[in-house]
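PROTOCOL LOG
Step 1. Enter all chains and additional molecules of the complex.
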Amino acid sequence: MSLTTAHSVVAPSANSKRIAGTIIVLYALISIVPLLWIFATSFKTPPDSIAYPPKILFQPSLEGYCNLFTTRTRQTPDYINSLGPATGFCDETTRKRNMVIAGPSNFLPRFVNSLIIAFGSTFCAVFLGTLSAYGFSRFKVPLADDLLFFILSTRFMPPIAVAIPIYLMYRELGLSDTALGMILLYTAVNVSLAVWLLKGFIDEIPREYEEAAMIDGYTRLQAFWRTVLPQATTGIAATAIFCLIFAWNEYAFAALLTSGTAQTAPPFIPTIIGEGGQDWPAVAAGTTIFLVPILVFTILLRKQLLRGITFGAVRK
Amino acid sequence: MAEIRVQHLRKAFGDFVAVQDSNFVVEDGEFFVMLGPSGCGKTTTLRMIAGLELPTGGQILLGRDDVTMLRARERDIAFVFQLFALYPHMNVRKNIGFPLLAQGMPAAEIRTRVEETAKLLRIDHLLNKSVSGLAGGDRQRVALGRAIVRRPKCFLMDEPLGTLDTEFRDLMVHELRELHNRIHATTVYVTHDQMEAMSMADKIAVMNHGVIEQFGSPREIYDRPATMFVADFIGSPPMNFLAFGGGLAKGAREIIVQGAKVAVPEVREDIAPSDMALGIRPEHIRFDDASKLRGAIYGTEYLGTTQIVAVETADGIIKARVPAEIRLSTGDHVGLALSSARLSLFEKGSGRAVRTAIHDVASERRAQHG
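Step 2. Run joint prediction.
Step 3. Record the structure below.
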C-alpha cells in the first residue's frame, strides 16, 4: 500500500469488492438457471423437451402454450382429414399430433383465482395490519406486549401443521373450495407478519405529525390518512410484497382445500402433466405465465422491498 | 386572541406526578415562557393546554371557554413542535395551507392567506419548494407559517429553536420576538434555555419537578429569585451561595458570613434559627482588599469584556464577574466585597427566599403600574 493514498477503514477495498461481486454473480447464475430452463422448455416441442442429451439450441414453438390453454382429444386421421382447414396455429399443431381441440383448459380460470385470492388476501392483511400496527404503535393497548407475542406466535409452526383442523372446519363452515375461504386463510397467516413489519415502520414516524394535524383541525382518522399513511408507503409496499409472495406461491393449503371452482394455479399446474402424456412444455408454459405477475409487482416495488429487508439495520 | 388561565392543573402518569397544582394566567397578547430543566413538567403543561394530553385535575380556560377536556382540534390553537413536524410529502405551500384545508376554506382563499403569511415571514420565494430541502431556519419559518396562517386564539411552542445551531437560534429569537411585536399573539413558549427565555419573554414561569417555582417578568426572576432553584437555574454562571447559620430578626440589616459582617437589604420577617444561605450574583462581587471575606484565586475564564474568576473560600468556590482589565494570577489572595443592595437570603431547608427590602421595590413598582 502506498503511503500517499488515504486509507479508509470503512470503505471496502477493491479486492474484497471483486470477491463479493464474483460470489453474487455465481449465486445469481445458480438461482436463475432453473428459471431459464423452465422458460426455454416452455418454447420447446414435447419431443424436444424430453430429448436426451437435452437440447440447448432448438426450434422454438408455441405448442406448450397451445396445450396449456386447451384440452384436446385424440382422433383418427380420417376424421381429422374430414375437417375443414385449420383455424389457427394451435389448431394446426394439434392436428399434426392426431388430436383436435376439445375446448379451453382450466388454466385461465385457475390463474384468475390465483390473482383474486392472492391480491385479495394481501389487501386484507395489509389493511388490517396497518390499522393494528398503528394502534399498537400509538395507543396504550392493555397487554400490548402479550398480544403482539400472541400474534407472532401464530407463525411459530408452519401453517400446514394445522391443515387437518382447518380442513374440517372449512368443511363444516362451507368455506372449502371458495375464494373467500382462501382469502381468509391467507389473510390470517399473513396478518401477523404485516402487524410486526408495519409496527416497526410506523414507530419510526414521529407522532408529532398526527398531533400537528389534530391541532390543525383534523380528526385522528383524517390525521392518520393524511400524514401517517403517506409516510408509511414504503413499509406498506414492502409488507404487501411479502404477503403477496406467500399467498401467490402457497401450494399445500391450496391443494388441500381447493379442487374445483376456487382452485389456484399452483395445485393446477402439476395436473397438466397427466393429460395426454408428460407434457413438459405446457407445464413450463404455465409456470412461466405464473411467474409474470409477481415479477412485475416486485420490479415495480423493488426499491421499497430493498428498504423493507434492510429496515432497522441502520439507525438514522 | 385570548388569555389563558390555568387553575390547579395537575397531571400524573401512574405514580409519577409530572405537574402538580399549577396556577398561572397568560394575559392576552403576552409572550409567556415556561422555563425549566428537562423533565420538569413544562412540556406536559403545554401539551395539556394544547389538548394533546388530558389533565388529571384542574382547569384550563382559553378566553372565556373551559377547554380542559376538549379535543385538540376543537380548541383553536396552533402548536409549533421542536422537530417542526413539517409533512415531508407536501411542499411549503401545502404545509402552510394544511390547517386551512381542515376548515374547508375555498382554494382561492387558502392561496391568498398562505401567500400573505409567507410574505410576513419572508419565505414567499420558497412556497413551491419541498420542505425536505430547506435549511433549519426556513423550516422553522414554515412551521411558524403553519401556526399563524389560521389566526388561532394562541400559539404554543415546544422548544422550537432547540434543534437549530447557535447562529440561527440567535437570529430566530430576534425574529420570533419581532413577529410577536407585530401580531401580538398570546404565546406560550417552552424552553430549557434561559437566554431564549430572558430575551423573548414578557413573563416567565420557572418550573422544577412539576412545580412552578416562580412566575414573573425576566427582571423579577433574575433580580429577586423566589427560590434557590431559580437563583441557581437562571444566570450564567449561576448565583453564588454562602452558607450561614442562625435566625434573622425582622429589621436586621447585617449578617455574619465566614466571620465577616455583610450588610444586607433590611429583613422583613422573623426567621427561626436554621441553615441559611446568602445569594449573590457573580457580577455583584468586587475585589476589595479591605474585605474580611477572603479567598485564593483558583482559576479565571477570560470573556473579552469581563472575566469570570473562581475564588476558593473557606466555604467553597465563589465565582465573580469582574472587568477584563484586572490582572490576576492563580493563587493570589483577594478580598471580596458584595453589593449589599443586590443580595438575596434563602432558607436552606425550604429553598425559599426570605422577604427583604429588595422585594419592597417590586411591590412598590407593581403598585405603581397597577
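Step 4. Note key features.
Residues 312-316 of chain A have pLDDT under 50 and may be disordered.
The CA atoms of residues 201 and 235 of chain A lie 6 Å apart.
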